[in-house]
Design a protein that fits this description.
By secondary structure, the chain is α+β, with helices and mostly antiparallel strands. It has two helices and ten strands, in the order H-E-E-E-E-E-E-H-E-E-E-E. The strands form two sheets. Strands 1-4-5-6-10-9-8-7 form an eight-stranded antiparallel sheet. A two-stranded antiparallel sheet has the order 2-3. A hairpin with a 4-residue loop joins strand 9 and strand 10. The N terminus is likely disordered.
Amino acid sequence: MNRLLTALALTCLCGSTTAQSPYNTPLQHGPATVNITPRAQAELPRDHIWRKSLKVVGRMSSGAPIRDTVYSISPNDERWIAEFTYVDAGHVRDSGPFDAIAMRNAIRDANEEDNLARVLAHELPVRIIGWERKPRYNTQTNWLSWILIRERDGIRNRSFEARLLGRVGYLSV
């Protein structure tokens, strides 16, 4: 669990932005022990808040939303928010090297589908610019991470992505 909190801390430091709270769910204030699953817990630091909520994480070809449980941690003032979820993806290949070009193309393709849903929801599209840091895989910790540059309405931002690969799924931060 220390790896998880370390990853969250690194994610938050690397991906710091000002954001409005997108949730209307009950929250827990730290310090506290928070439940991620019936078998997994994390220690929430003082002056931080924790949420567990359902969020639309994609759309089916019919346009119907795909919802998943999303967990988030942020300081009380919500100047940044780190979100993570567990994806039960079946067997996860953890042998490298990871093909950065294929990953970028897959991310761009998924983004194009997401842009169709954004247009239907009267939102602005997001353009994938490229890598700030190409995917790296740490064989000792099973972390796969990268930094992607995105643009929306002429404003560029950086999206730090980290995945802790497991046997039958991954934790996405």
